[in-house]
């Protein structure tokens, strides 16, 4: 794991062999369950405005299903199911592989998921025709679809260099989203998750990852703008809302309730905020009543895959 002697983003080396200690495993499982919890919580209010949410729920803070997809309570959307598909491809291939990811995503789409984004659909239809797992670069593909599913990459590459993590993030992203802002968001989120798993605190994530991202790409500036409500699927809108909620709250539950009550693409903002907050706060912070409300098969799949991906990282990490 990352040395506590150096901060994130400074190029510091790993000072000790990667070992799957109980704290690391707990945080990894919490990150994956956090993704699913944020997805399930946010799906209820997806595409609603903050005013509509307040009128119907006052404060939306329970996993009750419904929403525009009319989901059963505890069911998740494409955010979680795409992540699980990507994770399976990584485990089967023994690492992040673009072709394996594309085939897994294609199989996922053939399974008729409850929801699928337009950019994702277009990329997978292109893969079916061409067999190429890399979409042409496009300024129009700056959606959040690659960022919402990247957690398995962060877990599988834990202990690797930042360059290797970045390459793995782009490999899965470019199957559907080949865009500089999407890439930047994916890499930053993966490194933030890894820093949190390694025990860095929120202040280190703020100054070591979030602020440098905004310095490189001002679209991600979140401190000098008013609170984002009704965030769209544009990846910069998504991350600004997530960062505001993540850095301005003090618990897992507060973070998720804050971000999903902003409405808009709430399942995705909830999922991304959930994986970050889960990695930071750990299993003890996840509300028991939310975990009990989550679909049991999803809960089990997320926890099992988190453990398997971290084990892969340990076995493949340079010693």
Tell me what you see in this structure.
The chain is mainly α and 319 residues long. The protein has one domain: ADP-ribosylglycohydrolase fold. It is 59% helix and 0% strand. The protein has 14 helices and no strands. α1 (22-43) runs parallel beside α11 (252-260), α1 (22-43) runs antiparallel to α12 (266-281) and α4 crosses α5.
Number of helices: 14
Distance between the amino and carboxyl termini: 11 Å
At CATH level 2, the architecture is: Orthogonal Bundle
Integer tally of domains = 1
* H/E element order: HHHHHHHHHHHHHH
| Share of β-strand residues | under 5%
CATH topology: ADP-ribosylglycohydrolase fold
What would you report as the Rg, rounded to the nearest angstrom?
A: 18 Å
CATH superfamily: ADP-ribosylation/Crystallin J1
Summarize the structure.
With about 325 residues, the chain is mainly α. The protein contains 14 helices and no strands. Helix 1 packs antiparallel against helix 14 (about 295-315).
């Amino acid at each position: 794991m990352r040395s506590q002697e150096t901060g994130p983003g400074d190029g510091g080396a790993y000072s000790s062999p990667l070992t799957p200690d109980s704290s690391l495993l707990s945080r990894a499982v919490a990150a994956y369950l956090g993704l699913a919890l944020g997805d399930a919580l946010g799906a209820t209010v997806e595409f609603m405005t903050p005013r509509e949410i307040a009128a119907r729920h006052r404060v939306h803070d329970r996993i009750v299903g419904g929403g525009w997809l009319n989901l059963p309570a505890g069911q998740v959307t494409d955010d979680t199911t795409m992540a699980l598909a990507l994770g399976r491809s990584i485990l089967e291939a023994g690492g992040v592989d673009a072709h394996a990811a594309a085939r897994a995503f294609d199989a996922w789409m053939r399974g008729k998921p409850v929801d699928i984004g337009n950019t994702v659909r277009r990329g997978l239809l292109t893969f079916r025709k061409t067999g190429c797992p890399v979409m042409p670069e496009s300024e129009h593909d700056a959606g959040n679809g690659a960022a919402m599913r990247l957690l398995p990459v962060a877990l599988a590459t834990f202990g690797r260099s930042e360059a290797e993590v970045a390459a793995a993030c782009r490999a899965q992203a470019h199957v559907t989203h080949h865009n500089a802002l999407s890439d930047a968001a994916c890499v930053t989120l993966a490194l933030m998750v890894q820093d949190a798993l390694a025990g860095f605190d929120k202040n280190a994530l703020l100054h070591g990852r979030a602020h440098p991202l905004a310095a490189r790409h001002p679209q991600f500036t979140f401190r000098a703008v008013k609170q984002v409500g009704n965030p769209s699927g544009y990846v910069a809108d998504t991350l600004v809302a997530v960062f505001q909620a993540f850095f301005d709250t003090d618990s897992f539950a507060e973070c998720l309730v804050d971000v999903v009550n902003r409405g808009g693409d709430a399942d995705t903002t909830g999922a991304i905020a959930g994986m970050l907050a889960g990695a930071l706060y750990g299993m003890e912070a996840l509300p028991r009543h939310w975990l009990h409300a989550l679909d049991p098969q999803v809960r089990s799949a997320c926890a099992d895959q988190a453990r398997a991906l971290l084990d892969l990282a340990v076995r493949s990490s340079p010693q």
